[in-house]
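Appendix B. Extra example for self-study. Work through it before the problem class; the solution is given directly after the inputs so you can check yourself.
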Amino acid sequence: MLGIGVIGYGYWGPNLVRNFSQARGAQVVAVCDQREERRALVEKLYPAVTTYTDVDAMLANPQVHAVAIATPVSSHFPLAMRALEAGKHVFVEKPFAATVAEGEQMVAEARRRNLTLMVDHTFIYTSAVRKIKELVDQGSLGDLYYYDSVRVNLGLFQSDVSVLWDLAVHDLSIMDFLIGRSPQMVAATGMAHVPGRPENMAYLTCFFDHNLIAHFHVNWLAPVKIRQTLIGGSEKMIVYDDMEMSEKVKVYDKGIIVSHEEDEIYQRHVGYRTGDMWAPRLDNIEALKIEAEHFVECIQHGQTPLSSGEAGLRVVRILEAASRSMANHGQPVAI
Amino acid sequence: MLGIGVIGYGYWGPNLVRNFSQARGAQVVAVCDQREERRALVEKLYPAVTTYTDVDAMLANPQVHAVAIATPVSSHFPLAMRALEAGKHVFVEKPFAATVAEGEQMVAEARRRNLTLMVDHTFIYTSAVRKIKELVDQGSLGDLYYYDSVRVNLGLFQSDVSVLWDLAVHDLSIMDFLIGRSPQMVAATGMAHVPGRPENMAYLTCFFDHNLIAHFHVNWLAPVKIRQTLIGGSEKMIVYDDMEMSEKVKVYDKGIIVSHEEDEIYQRHVGYRTGDMWAPRLDNIEALKIEAEHFVECIQHGQTPLSSGEAGLRVVRILEAASRSMANHGQPVAI
Amino acid sequence: MLGIGVIGYGYWGPNLVRNFSQARGAQVVAVCDQREERRALVEKLYPAVTTYTDVDAMLANPQVHAVAIATPVSSHFPLAMRALEAGKHVFVEKPFAATVAEGEQMVAEARRRNLTLMVDHTFIYTSAVRKIKELVDQGSLGDLYYYDSVRVNLGLFQSDVSVLWDLAVHDLSIMDFLIGRSPQMVAATGMAHVPGRPENMAYLTCFFDHNLIAHFHVNWLAPVKIRQTLIGGSEKMIVYDDMEMSEKVKVYDKGIIVSHEEDEIYQRHVGYRTGDMWAPRLDNIEALKIEAEHFVECIQHGQTPLSSGEAGLRVVRILEAASRSMANHGQPVAI
Amino acid sequence: MLGIGVIGYGYWGPNLVRNFSQARGAQVVAVCDQREERRALVEKLYPAVTTYTDVDAMLANPQVHAVAIATPVSSHFPLAMRALEAGKHVFVEKPFAATVAEGEQMVAEARRRNLTLMVDHTFIYTSAVRKIKELVDQGSLGDLYYYDSVRVNLGLFQSDVSVLWDLAVHDLSIMDFLIGRSPQMVAATGMAHVPGRPENMAYLTCFFDHNLIAHFHVNWLAPVKIRQTLIGGSEKMIVYDDMEMSEKVKVYDKGIIVSHEEDEIYQRHVGYRTGDMWAPRLDNIEALKIEAEHFVECIQHGQTPLSSGEAGLRVVRILEAASRSMANHGQPVAI
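Solution. Structure tokens for the complete assembly:
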């Protein structure tokens, strides 16, 4: 039985404790939080769990084999490093790290110590994204043309990070999983409407080789909640709408037909193809439950997680470059 | 009675002939098209209209007081200049001109000759956009924060111009009308998926002073048709969805509250405000009918049209800068 | 070339003239309307068509081989009978007749004279309904359980007939076509909210053998426009939403599983089955064009139309029984 | 502090325990369930609560001042009567009772003993329904014309009661609350598609005086989930869609204008009026929390609950009459 210690019992920590408690092969043995009232809550709901104020004290507990970190991004690096140095496997909230440099050290440290390092890219464990991954991997979409996502709503203005690090991180993690390639260049624009605060809306373009392009629109100040992704391929196109109660994934048998005989004025003809739409049935398993058990299995069998530290780092690489581009009104930044 | 001559009876020309025929104070007296079968169609439907193969012959007709040009964008400049030089008022399809230089000459020539020059920015005459304009002008939205539009569908790939010139031109003309200010800088990205063809999808950011930002997403290769604009202000926010049968315009009494007392760690608090939503009743008058009569009235009373040549030129200015930025992966371009 | 005479050039007549003019093998040769301004309109748009004030004069024209009747329902019977007696094939608007007795005479007269008699059940020629018919006939839905339709909006209050005869007639004609069976009993309720006017909202249940049930909700006084039909079968279920721009027909692989082993307390278990949803591609051909050509072909080849007089009569049979039930607060009426 | 005992810890019981635990002025002191594993669950989550197998034992506990009954409908009567006889206030799940006769005895017994008797009509405590009630009571809708609701989905087939008692009970309770009048007659139709099981789909019409009509469509065998109510009035009309994430209540300023001058052919003219749509902001308070505190306050202050035993009885009266009508294919039944 793998013993889990959770650091941070704020907004997301309770979900981690609940899911790791129910995960096959694992049990939550410790929770660390500096706030007394948060520890009291743990003690009431989970009397068998030991609570800690001090991270090092928790790491000294030999029953803790793995650590889940659910604290603000600025603390991911020091906490993850301390846990790895104490020989613990590490599960860390997204964004994986505050900088590429930090993320690289975390990945290197885990590799050196042969420990499992995983980032909580929850969305890639949802039934919707797993189904899309299946379709992409089967080649159903043909050549990938574009990935376009919108994630906007009236949301909490963060004071430490821009909306890119708060919202686009979800979509970048999904894109990284689905596409399996990294962009070569990014260009981002955005705006801060509250003086002294980071950008509350942003637009990010990622350029890949082979004419693949991705775009992300994120906004904390929108009157309606939109969670919509379009994925265009040469054979099929997908609309993934997370606000739909059912039919979150729709597959369109639509596209263009490029005639390869060039006509007298040297132009290719571009025609249309429209066909059926198909919404595959999706299961109802909670993503975090699948993810928690995946972490446990990766540790047990020495496998690399789907959302490995490297995946977390790839996303941070894009975010860091995007932030630089955004500070320069869209000036492209190579990755 | 103002005599109108229409040049080009292809896709849009028939709409112009029909609407100018019914416009108060005007009548269509001439149509010019080089294709015999198109002229035959005019002759059958409008026996009283004289048809021409040659533009100059039509311009020599003293009954033609004004000319409406519905030809490909590359011919707008030479045709409009010839018409102006012949002393005719001019109504020209969008995009107004193929380049800023051409547009500037057209505007100068009309001014010099004291002739009315109008661009067919049809959308600004729709009941939805007129209602939004009313709300913006009343100050209902407060300070403008952003303008965000999406116009995507599976559409005709143009061979001569990119999707920016074909689709974004609509949204830029709406934005120009609603906001009444011009951007200082643009950044655009896009991609061409058919070799030898212009970009079929594009993302354009416009930066204005006072932290106003606008963004346009256009795509000819989307599986679904989306026509949605979000307009964010400090007091109210609007969703304008042209695919809605009724309730195209929704006004949300939502926003953020920025507390101006700074707390001990020098941060402003950002809170939320949510209120009612309101969808104003819109009339059903055809936009092109209103626009045609507006052209006639402007000529009769020497007024400047809402969609003047200057308005057309402002939009071309953005398109030209955007094309340059797009060719450089988002490199910002000042206007 | 089949010569068509159209009686009634009001709301629907122009659509008939336009479609029969373009139908292969037919041409409109005559139009009859008592109103001078309607005749003038015909003469302007269709100079080759002869106009008549008097029906008998038109029927005396030997170039008129078939007659299309687009007048109020009360005149369908006398006009159709006169046309049949004059040896003309007849195409008549829905509802087919004002009473079952009238409809029976019309059908008998056409049969006796071996003339084609067809009712304008336009919806059964739409691509959506033809696709559903294909699925039903293939047995894709399994045993049919129910047919449920809603057709409501803020609509024109008729003064001569209730909302059943005005709106439910559409859905009854679709159901008659799709199901191919007639109900054995009906029960209807409704209400008139304007004194002296017929019912402006109504609910109609049709009982068939084999536990099939159908229900129709029609309303002229609804704040929103709804056109939605659910069709439930043992294997699959369909949602047909005519307000959807695309994806009007959705096929759900959903249903119940009834376990046939009865348990100790003599109950069958009822479980669920959920699967994919599929929206077949629909073509864009105008229904009235298909219908007009079908009428011509049926006359040429002596075939029975899909929407034959008998089909029109079956729908009138339901409407007449429903009206009686509605007058008695839902008292069931056998058919 | 009012001590609450909950009978039945199945599907709904846990919600009652949770909400009464958090309600101001109350605490859950006892839970009774015959199933050991359900009691064990209570003991784990609520160590301070005493669990019982036997209802009478629980009723003998002097700390239990009021009882909440969340058991199948057939046991509501015996359990409620035993509780009232033991001097306890009673909160009972809907449907209030299995028959009108039972319900009448329950109401009489509570009145005789001056005890609070309340039925769990949860929906009337939601923010959406409370807002509609406010509009109706202000007279905003004008004269009420109709109430039309649809509640369909792929749902659990009950073996003891028809879909009317399972689903329509929700809408009847909402209608009873909003309209404040009782129907004089009902007519219902329905069908059972699983042999030996009660009707799984049903249509119910309620006739009121003053030309008010209500209709309910309920179905356990629908491919999609619909929760939509239309309320028509002479001044305004409402669409209440419980599947909308936001904007559940939309108020339409639409209607008809009946001209009271009668024309020469003795007809009133009926015209249209269309205006704005307005979606009032709704609060987010959980309905069951409001309801639980309302029960406590009614006991404390001797007030009649909004969802009193009489309200529960009124709904059962409709359900009983509807069941009789449904067994006779829509034969109307007076109430």
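Self-check: The two ends of chain B are 41 Å apart (CA to CA). If your reasoning did not lead you there, revisit section 3.
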